[in-house]
Amino acid sequence: MKPASGAMISLLTTNGPFFMADLYTIKDAYGGVSTWTDFDNDLSVGGTLYSAETLVLTRTKTKLSTGLDTDTMTVTLAAPPSATIQTMSPYYGMPWLMAIQKGYLDGARINVDRMVTNDWGNTSFGSIPMFYGRVSDVDVSRGVATIKVNTDLDLLNLQLPKNLFQAGCLNTLYDGGCLANRSAFTFSGTVGGGSTSTSIVLSGVTTQPDGYFALGTMKFTSGTNINGVAGVRDFASGVATLTYPLVNAPSVGDAFTITAGCDKQLTTCTNKFSNQAHFRGFPYVPPPETVT
Questions:
Q1: Side-chain half-sphere exposure of 1, counting CA atoms within 13 A
Q2: All domains in the chain, ordered by first residue
Q3: d(CA 111, CA 125)
Q4: How confident is the prediction along the chain (292 residues), in pLDDT tens digits per residue?
Q5: Is the Cα dihedral 6, 8, 13, 14 positive or negative?
């Protein structure tokens, strides 16, 4: 049963006409929240302003059922190039569709509520939750993003047993299983001359060997990309190559911190992090095709 206010229940049980509008809340993985509505004008519901401008959102139907089936909703998001991300993240200022294509909605949640009223000027009846879930898949085409959202029951679709026999480590670098000290492998520096939006010349970080920061992260602490975090694809000859281009090309002297990455192999864990005791891989198990 979906919760509703007493005023809304009274409204729905009367014979008078009433109107409905969907309210969308997008919560990204960086703590940003943006709210939208499919109504023609902005709506203020429960103290939250839902914008009707810029984005056009539609969705598929939802259903109610018993059991543990994972429900899926598809949200279609249309946006012009002038519509940009306004929440603080590495994608700040980037057009919505470009940001989505580059991974902005990875780990994001989308909530859909339905507002019901008998007068568009009166939103005091509140709203009814229709669908809450996590983004599972995204497909971006010209002018439109198709977003698949699964309910939280999708979290039950876990592969068991927890520990799989594989050569690579099962831990996430610097997490509670790895226990490597992030601060010990994080260095501060500034952007050097000749840097671009994808290749950053590291000034002040000169003692680390090639490959040291590969698969790591870079966070800018000043300049136009301040608070932006970018993945590092490779590191060689003092130059960090980023996984995706920065929204804004950095300026010489912009400050950053850069953290070492890990390829989850035993030699890396031992030689680079001195952390073999917490390695959770099985490098000596032969592949299935060699077992007789």
A1: 4
A2: 6-156 (no CATH), 182-278 (2.40.10)
A3: 19
A4: 577 777 777 777 787 788 899 999 999 998 999 999 999 999 999 899 999 988 999 999 877 666 666 788 999 999 998 899 998 888 888 899 999 988 899 989 999 999 988 888 888 888 889 999 999 999 998 889 999 999 888 777 777 777 778 889 999 999 999 999 999 999 999 999 999 999 999 999 878 999 999 999 999 999 999 888 899 999 999 999 999 898 889 999 999 999 999 999 999 999 999 999 999 999 888 776 765 5
A5: positive
